[in-house]
Prior knowledge:
The longest helix is centred in the middle third of the chain and has 19 residues, at 350-368. This protein has helices at 10-17, 28-35, 172-175, 217-227, 350-368, 401-409, 423-432, 462-472, 486-498, 511-517, 530-543; strands spanning 81-89, 92-99, 102-107, 193-194, 199-200, 207-211, 246-251, 262-266, 273-278, 284-287, 301-307, 310-316, 322-325, 335-344, 374-383, 392-398, 441-448, 474-480, 503-506, 525-529. It is α+β, with helices and mostly antiparallel strands. The model is unreliable at 1-70, 111-159, 164-179 and 181-202 (pLDDT under 50). Among the domains are: 193-241 and 334-543, von Willebrand factor, type A domain (Rossmann fold, 3-Layer(aba) Sandwich), CATH 3.40.50; 246-325, Carboxypeptidase-like, regulatory domain (Immunoglobulin-like, Sandwich). Helix content is 21%, strand content 22%. The strands form 4 sheets. An 11-stranded mixed beta sheet has the order 1-2-3-16-15-14-17-18-19-6-20, with helices on both faces.
Amino acid sequence: MQADPLALRWPAMTLRVNWKTWGQVLTVAAIAAACEGSSGGPAVKTEPKAGPVDVPGPTPGSGGEAGAPVEPKVEPKVEPKVEPVVGTLDDRSVQSEQEGPWTRRRVGGEPGAGDLGGFGMVGRGEGGSGSGYGGIGSAGSIGSIGRGGSIGSPAASPSVSRPAPAEMEDSAADMAMPRKSSKPLTPGGPGLKDPFAGNVKESAPLKAGATDDNADYASYLRFLASWTGREDVRGQFQPLDVAGRAFVQVLDGDGQPVPGARIEIFGAGPGATMWQATTYGDGRAPYYPRLFGAQEKPSPMIVRATAGGQTVEASWDGTKELTLRTAGPRAAGPMTLEVLFLIDTTGSMGDEIDQIKTSLLAVTSKAKARREDLVLRYGAVLYRDLNDDYLTMAHPFTEDLQAFNSALQGVSAGGGGDLPEALNQGLERAVEGMQWQADAAKVVFLICDAPPQMRVKGDVLYGDSALRAVGKGLRIHSVAASGLDPLGTLVLRQVAQLTRGKFIFIEYGGTQASAARHGVGGAVQGGNNLDDILLAQITAEIDGWGR
């Protein structure tokens, strides 16, 4: 497929957004492919392999002795289809293999001997601004992480910031990873379980609460000002400055919202793309002028919206909401809704996994009843940790919801042990590694109880993946399972707010006490079963699409 010419203008955006990872840079072709909804990764050439050859035994009349017994045919054992290396993490190869409908990625090999020396300091980077929340400015860009005392390569440009180099102490205490704590047992809560088998012996519906950090935006900014100054999160998160948020809305000729419109914001120079997004169901897309640190903003900027073969442009100062109108009404047709379940499947997640497995079909039935012309597609990305039996497992989107449910029933909790998990790798695969349909409503449920590993060479950090999700119009609802620490809370609320999703949390000890543990000070919808809250987000997407 020929790349969209507009997508080839992404290099300017690449420098601002830091599509650069710890050890590699996305190519222009890969970014263009991502804009078209593909996985964004380069095609991997595979060499043909010789298949197993069956040697038949002697049969009557074939020259063997009359009446001789016939040797039974032995079917060859079907092994998982192993693909070539698809990348590296911490200088270890990442391989992919097919197992039924699932595609498994695992990290092979062993870390280099330099691991004994700990993390080396990073290369020099650009300085960041000092106007962030609570006195913490946006961190400057940094070089690639060195291992065992090596020196990283210098970063080329400002970026969605990584933890500041000065905050990444190279000490034994800093490198020691805390282990996950067991989940509390409260009346009406989940029962005792084998934490490494996902085998719930006695269970009850999980209660959950939810808050909308975009609806209560001022309260969310206060949360950032307070939470990012905590010692227990210092140097471990991306300081995503979302202050000054503004919206671009696209309406059709009848004044109705146009979802799925492609938004591009240009600076003064030709082809200088500053921002790219896709409108959500209400026809609106966010713009965050300070996300990449303090920078001079051209005035006016040019905003271009493309939808249904029409393109409209307007000048904008980036402050008040801008409304663009297309010439005619939006074309009528069925609605496609793609729902992806992004699940931490490490050992402490058995309760949440079982809740989804037992309630999925009931949620599906209620969702399909909301709209007769709804085309509902499910997909999943599971993740664990670098040293587990898999890093990620992906199930492609499918309209065969019964088959998807059957595949999901085989999922269980296991592995893990230390606190941070492969959330970064799971989120990157969800955003870039799934075949999202361009004109569909796109919803992700990120369900986890641990923060991401933030010091893995070669990965894509959560803030970069969330920014790409905005570019594709993905709405990510973050679900905090019990035991999530303050860093995990910060990361999940950042991801949900940036992508216009909800922050959902499992309740232990009541709605308000649970909300307070996650720093939620605004309005809370609480006391509902988890499956009811998930259904509410799906039905809200259906009911609000283009309305």
